[in-house]
Amino acid sequence: xxxxxxxxxxxxxxxxxxxxxxxxxxxxxxxxxxxxxxxxxxxxxxxxxxxxxxxxxxxxxxxxxxxxxxxxxxxxxxxxxxxxxxxxxxxxxxxxxxxxxxxxxxxxxxxxxxxxxxxxxxxxxxxxxxxxxxxxxxxxxxxxxxxxxxxxxxxxxxxxxxxxxxxxxxxxxxxxxxxxxxxxxxxxxxxxxxxxxxxxxxxxxxxxxxxxxxxxxxxxxxxxxxxxxxxxxxxxxxxxxxxxxxxxxxxxxxxxxxxxxxxxxxxxxxxxxxxxxxxxxxxxxxxxxxxxxxxxxxxxxxxxxxxxxxxxxxxxxxxxxxxxxxxxxxxxxxxxxxxxxxxxxxxxxxxxxxxxxxxxxxxxxxxxxxxxxxxxxxxxxxxxxxxxxxxxxxxxxxxxxxxxxxxxxxxxxxxxxxxxxxxxxxxxxxxxxxxx
Length: 436
Hints:
Elements: E1 6-8, E2 14-17, E3 40-45, E4 58-63, E5 74-76, E6 96-98, E7 116-124, E8 129-138, E9 145-149, E10 153-160, E11 163-167, E12 170-174, E13 178-182, E14 188-191, E15 196-203, E16 228-230, E17 241-247, E18 250-256, E19 263-268, E20 273-276, E21 297-302, E22 309-316, E23 319-321, E24 338-345, E25 360-363, H1 373-380, E26 387-389, E27 394-400, E28 405-406, H2 408-413
Parallel strand pairs: 9-17
Antiparallel strand pairs: 1-16, 2-19, 3-4, 4-19, 5-18, 6-25, 7-8, 7-28, 8-15, 10-13, 10-15, 11-12, 11-14, 13-20, 17-18, 21-22, 22-27, 23-26, 24-25, 24-27
């Protein structure tokens, strides 16, 4: 695949052309009567034409063939566990924890599109409101095929294995402890080497943005300059390709006789991007108390209610803990938001046993959760010295204001739900003695 080259900046307006075709970008206009090199001009809109200028996003492609050159789409049934039906199972408010999700066996070949499994979600793809949480498990590349999501944006969190992603915009290499966002409508193909697993947060409403910093100031958390977008790269292949579309929660496939990755040049601000989680600037208390986890927000997709998210992507990275006279781990909590957690690597501080990389947990709206007995007793009696915590660990949370339903696959078929999860709190003792 060659070198991976990037442009930096979040929400930036980029201009790039493959060096094999200099001056492929038109000057001073978007759609000239004749494009250089016999290319076609094509616009990809990420917002309505009349969206406010601060939110408006689109990109102009200059490509060998327009995307419209394909045969009719046909229903595809390669991923029967990719769903958006939230009525499969009766509601279940219990705390849920999943053991690591199975990787494909060595005697079966499963690519990224075939290995999508939906755990939970809420809302409706047709009304463009809601979200879904998926895992992907695969072991082979998407040869001569590409995928796009007409329903919303994918925030992809690799846990095991490197993702070698070709997009219409160029190429991305995404390692564990990095994330990438492939926005609505963008065509991409995933190459892998060996067993590969990760998590996906899909949002139907809006696009992801950086959280406001408020009194933090101009710098901090995920800094815009650390987000990377690929430079233009194209291939010229006149072979049969499959274009897989996720549309209204179902998969469809159309055939065409050429590669979709034929964009010679492009400019715009509607782009795929990646981010290295190790570059996150952690903000934390240096006096007392455990800060709310919102201070660890990397990206957010806001609802129509100010400060309330359809989905937040939050991480719990290595950091210093220095609070005085404080129970330092996460506090016991009942939340008006849904919290899905995953673990990329290491051991999560509040539950070092049972919560494993490649697994997950769901604490639904107003369902109690918090540290287990071992964590509570240890932290309540620890010597409060400055210490590094979460070293060698990266846990994350998908948090949503919506009440999420678990799919039949998530609750039954995958057979990874830990029925004994509730027991980790049963040994919490009564310490009350009526004396201060």
